[in-house]
Amino acid sequence: MAVVLDRVARLADVAKAAGVSQGTVSNVFNRPEVVREEVREHVRAVAKKLGFRGPDPKGRLLRAGKVNAIGIAVAEPLDYFFTDPFARELMRGISDACDDRGAGLSLISALNSDGLAWNVQNALVDGFVLLCIEGGERLVELTRERQLPFVALALGKPDPSISAVGVDDREGARVAAQHLIDLGHRRFGILALEFVDDRSGPVTMAEVEAAVYSTSRDRVHGYFDALGAAGIDTRRVPIYETLNDEATTHAALAFMFDTQEPPTALLCMSDRVALIAMDWLKARGLEVPGQVSIIGFDGIPEGATAAQPLTTISQPIADIGKRAIEIILEGGGKVRREILPTRLDIRASTAKAI
Amino acid sequence: MAVVLDRVARLADVAKAAGVSQGTVSNVFNRPEVVREEVREHVRAVAKKLGFRGPDPKGRLLRAGKVNAIGIAVAEPLDYFFTDPFARELMRGISDACDDRGAGLSLISALNSDGLAWNVQNALVDGFVLLCIEGGERLVELTRERQLPFVALALGKPDPSISAVGVDDREGARVAAQHLIDLGHRRFGILALEFVDDRSGPVTMAEVEAAVYSTSRDRVHGYFDALGAAGIDTRRVPIYETLNDEATTHAALAFMFDTQEPPTALLCMSDRVALIAMDWLKARGLEVPGQVSIIGFDGIPEGATAAQPLTTISQPIADIGKRAIEIILEGGGKVRREILPTRLDIRASTAKAI
DNA sequence: GAATTCCCTTGAACCGATTCAAAATCTAGG
DNA sequence: CCTAGATTTTGAATCGGTTCAAGGGAATTC
Fold it and tell me: Is residue B107 a contact partner of residue B331, using CB atoms and an 8 Å limit?
């Protein structure tokens, strides 16, 4: 007697058709060893006939509670994960950690705040890694609502109530500036990242102190720690806020180099900006590092493989991702904050001052 | 009277505490406009007091059935998505398509077959895109079990029963060879991808015809279509199977160039292999394209931005990803097969034969 | 022959929401 | 004041499984 179903077969259908309880069918698929072979094979045969391919994860999920996947959220379009060098390197570390634990990876994004809210609220994950490159505050706020473990990366405002992994920006920046001082440079320019959202242009020290993004502020402090100690008048060091893109970086360079005494050393808060600066200077006939030395920040792979390799302060990007996953999966829900070390990678964009 | 729960609050708890039905609480969060303002605010207040932050997606999922996410599966480690140029470019297209539709993205992988099976069987997704670069057959088999819509990309064996998006490999290869013939070349070498799993070395035409991966076979046919028409004895054109890595590509080059009459033109089945070949030749003091012309296949961004830009047959990689998503989300479950056009991108690795 | 084990299997509770027909309440018109 | 119609709210079914205490039956021990 073949029963024809008007829908896809469920566990219960198989149970009824095979004349056993639902629990037994469940065991056949999940713990086959506890079911008598005869019964097991019979159930399997019936399941096959009904086109039942195994328990639907949607059902299991509710009972089990665990999704076995981590969500990586960012306030950028999804392709950010595959195009931005920093994100890509970070995802390498995250991927490895997830592979090791057999966890899946869900990419979560939103361009507008409505979509972001919905995506974060409904993502089927066991925890979140927040890429707070931009709009970090809001991302944290939304995620908090979910009441799932999460770790913030590159978060501007350090909040002691949430887990985070990062680097010591101030110390990294200090080392960067010290490197250039050691090479004899005395005239500097700082190509900064955003202090507040969507603003670019020259900034004053007061604006630096009022920064929303403490990452940028800390780095300025770090640069100035070294410059000040070397007796350089930091009030005369130009700081230009960029949006980490070509247009604003070019504007920053024009601002600094169309002057009587242009800098001989550029302190850049990202490798991206540093690479753009290098191209711009060369196009203007200035030699790097002959006439101008450039140091970046981040340590993205592109910096090392560029036509002219970039000296930079490397962050252990992949490790940051890895630690984030570990904290979520094994942190036991406790708040953890980790500061990983940076490293000065001296390559071919810095040289002795003339 | 404050009720204290020993667990996280649920919809039902809020309903009871607020003295309304569960359905009303559900409406407050999902269709607030149908609930009287007074009730709505009251429920919200109670929810807040109980620490209920909104309906749990795990519960909603079961009822709604839709996850609103697409799974991208590959038989490689997860970091493949972020390190392999082809995969990255593909994911760009997929990301855009998902962003447009507000769909999420789940990355699914496995190193060993057990893990792969589990991940594919349990992924919470509405459909799959299969990257059949390697182990495609098995991936298709596993996915079929899930009874969810899926699209295969770069699948070796064309199976008319499954949806797929790809390019006309034979025609693309023909155009590649024709380009070199037009430049006057008469001595060719073919650096092939795998015909069967994990094998490398020189292959005979019989082995080509017996290929598991029809992509590689079709490309050989395409190359030979052009070479044969130009009156070149294809039996004397060496074909070397590589694993798309440095070691086997170097072996292939040694095999071809340690001969009396080395080729003046290399037909490579991937840009990766082509770039490796270019480096190898230069390291041996051979000029590209002065002494040897090289043409790739794929059109990865690295080929265009390389120190010496690579001539290649470009696949519309991002478009392939985009179409795959569209087929899953809007295909209505019907089987669809699409062949997208390739394009000859002439850059700096091919030149007139001497 | 009764008691004790051991091995399977059962049945029902539970996971956390959405949905919708039906009931209850309110509003306006006669 | 009554009623038709509009607006809200309820209650119960449903989604598809997992889990585990309790039960049944066969084998083993006393």
Answer: no
Q: Do A82 and B62 touch (CB under 8 A)?
A: no
Distance from CA of A4 to the nearest CA of B (A): 18
Distance from residue A123's CA to nucleotide D19's C1', rounded to whole Å: 26
220-249 in A: which are within 8 Å (CB) of B? none
Per residue in B229-254, pLDDT (tens digit) is 999 999 999 999 999 999 999 999 99
* pTM score, whole prediction: 0.92
- Laid out side by side, the sheet with A293-298 consists of A201-202, A239-241, A188-192, A265-268, A293-298, A311-314, A343-345
Helix (H, G, I), strand (E, B) or coil at B202: strand
Is B295 within 8 Å of B180 (Cβ atoms)?
yes
- The Cα-based distances of A353 to A178, A183, A187, A265 in angstroms read 13, 6, 10, 8
Four-CA torsion B165, B95, B296, B140, nearest 10 degrees: -40
**B260 phi-psi bin (left φ>0, alpha ψ -120 to 50, beta other):** alpha
Does the beta-carbon distance from A104 to B104 stay under 8 Å?
Answer: no
Does the pLDDT value for residue B86 go beyond 50? yes
Please give the Cα distance from A89 to A213 (Å, whole number). 22
Q: CA-CA distance, A225 to A178, in Å (whole number)?
A: 9
pLDDT per position as a tens digit, A195-216: 998 899 999 999 999 998 889 9
Q: How far apart are CA A56 and CA B146, in angstroms?
A: 8
pLDDT of residue A3: 54
Contact B267, B190 (CB under 8 A): yes
